[in-house]
Design a protein that fits this description.
The protein is mainly alpha-helical. Helix content is 41%, strand content 3%. The chain has helices spanning 6-15, 21-28, 32-42, 51-60, 70-73, 114-120, and strands spanning 93-94, 100-101. α2 (21-28) packs across α3 (32-42).
Length: 121
């Protein structure tokens, strides 16, 4: 286990909030677990991101900044807290502190709607 250099720590602090952990691990030549653990020790957190955009970027091998998910929240009026979800409503969550859920009708045999199944599976 090699120690983190000040340059690596600075890079992690700057990029962790908006970059997928697998990309950070590749850039820093470390495991994803090491990246996650170090970020936790440094008390660095992820911003709201649309990880579908991150997946597209990862597949193409090109870097781009993920779009903030907060823009999607402003257009949705049917989001619900978990306590109000019914059994056949999508459990895809938005946010970190006050998580709200999609609540659209789920795809057969899945916990998510068709749109979020494409993101998660």
């Amino acid at each position: 286990m090699t120690q983190w250099t000040p340059e690596e720590i600075a890079y992690l602090r700057e990029h962790y909030p908006n970059t997928n952990n697998s990309i950070l691990a590749r850039d820093l030549n470390r495991s994803e677990g090491a990246v996650t653990s170090k970020a936790k020790l440094l008390k660095v957190h992820k911003d709201f991101v649309n990880f579908m955009d991150v997946r597209k970027v990862k597949q193409r091998g090109v870097r781009a900044e993920p779009k903030p998910i907060i823009t999607q929240l402003t257009t949705r009026t049917d989001l619900k807290p978990f306590s109000e979800l019914k059994p056949k409503e999508c459990q895809y969550g938005y946010g970190t502190d006050n998580v709200l859920f999609c609540a659209r009708e789920v795809a057969k045999g899945k916990p998510y709607c068709e749109k979020h199944c494409k993101v998660c599976y």
